DNA sequence: AACAACATCAACCGCGCGGGC
DNA sequence: TGCCCGCGCGGTTGATGTTGT
């Protein structure tokens, strides 16, 4: 199946790529795009450049609108609760930025992804947490991790405590305690207290609701579409 | 003041999917 | 049924800003 779909060479050359600007958008370009979308709404990205006279690909227009020009974008620094939510959702969903961004009103997938890569990933690493699987990295010195606060009474705190018990036992030469504590560290689910009902347009459309989120119902609402319970 | 190294983030690219023909 | 188009996604790049020496 992929063979057929992937056979790009059968497609007509993409006219979009001819004579198109690249790089940063000018104010005039932004204004043209805004005006057009105000008048005609989103969609039909492929024909948009022709309709507006923009020398950009439809893809580029879409990205510019979604990531920068949309009026409902929040922009600015991420709040603490947004950070916490991103970390929790990432633990649950991995790098599914559009899904994660869908839980953060006014934030885009690109913004969330960038923020993760430039801030949160580093933060977790410095806390001794592997950003890929949200497990404690036992090789990191704990003193370094303590200077970073993260949420309040999270599962990370539990991990940290177990990890510290492990370290203590090690220094005491108590091997039983070491293995107990170590297994405790490994067994703590990244998010024992978080269950979510999550969808975005595409996942819904494609019936691709992540397995870990299927059949979850909830009583508490954090955002209209984010449902949490403990 | 000048330069290097590092951090940030807007924008681009390639791929996969659903839908229409 | 198979092909093509349009769209959306995640990964990556590169320009720009900031900090350190």
Structure description:
This protein has 230 residues and is mainly alpha-helical. The chain has eleven helices and two strands, in the order αααααααααααββ. The protein has a two-stranded antiparallel sheet. Strand 1 (220-223) and strand 2 form a beta hairpin. The longest helix has 18 residues, at 109-126. The protein is elongated and about 55 Å long. It starts with a helix and ends with a strand. 20% of the residues are buried. Mean pLDDT is 63; it is low at 1-17 and 140-230. It binds a DNA duplex (21 and 21 nucleotides) through helix 1, helix 4, helix 7 and helix 11.
Give the distance, in angstroms, between the N- and C-terminal Cα atoms: 42 Å
DSSP helix count?
A: 11
Total count of strands: 2
Helical percent range? Answer: 40-55%
Beta percentage is under 5%
Structural class: mainly alpha
Low-confidence segments: 1-17, 140-230
If you compute it from the alpha carbons, what radius of gyration comes out, rounded to the nearest whole angstrom? 23 Å
Order of helices and strands: HHHHHHHHHHHEE
What is the global morphology? elongated
- Biggest sheet statistics: 2 strands, antiparallel
Biggest sheet strand line-up: 1-2
Mean pLDDT score: 63
């Amino acid at each position: 199946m992929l063979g057929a779909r992937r056979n790009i060479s059968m497609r007509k050359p993409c006219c979009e790529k001819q004579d198109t600007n690249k790089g940063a958008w000018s104010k005039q370009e932004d204004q043209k795009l805004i005006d057009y979308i105000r008048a005609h709404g989103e969609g039909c990205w492929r024909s948009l450049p022709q309709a507006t006279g923009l020398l950009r690909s439809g893809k580029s227009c879409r990205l510019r609108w979604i990531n920068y020009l949309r009026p409902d974008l929040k922009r600015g620094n991420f709040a603490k609760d947004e950070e916490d939510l991103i970390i929790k959702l990432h633990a649950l969903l991995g790098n599914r930025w559009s899904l994660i961004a869908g839980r953060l009103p006014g934030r885009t997938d690109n913004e969330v992804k960038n923020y993760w890569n430039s801030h949160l990933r580093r933060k977790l690493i410095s806390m001794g947490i592997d950003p890929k699987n949200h497990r404690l990295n036992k090789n990191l010195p704990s003193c370094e991790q303590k200077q970073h606060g993260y949420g309040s009474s999270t599962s990370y705190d539990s991990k940290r405590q177990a990890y510290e018990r492990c370290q203590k036992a090690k220094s005491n030469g108590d091997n039983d305690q070491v293995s107990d504590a170590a297994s405790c560290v490994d067994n703590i689910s990244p998010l024992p207290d978080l269950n979510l009902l999550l969808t975005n347009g595409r996942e819904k459309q494609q019936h691709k609701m992540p397995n870990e989120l299927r059949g979850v119902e909830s009583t508490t609402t954090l955002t209209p579409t984010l449902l949490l319970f403990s």
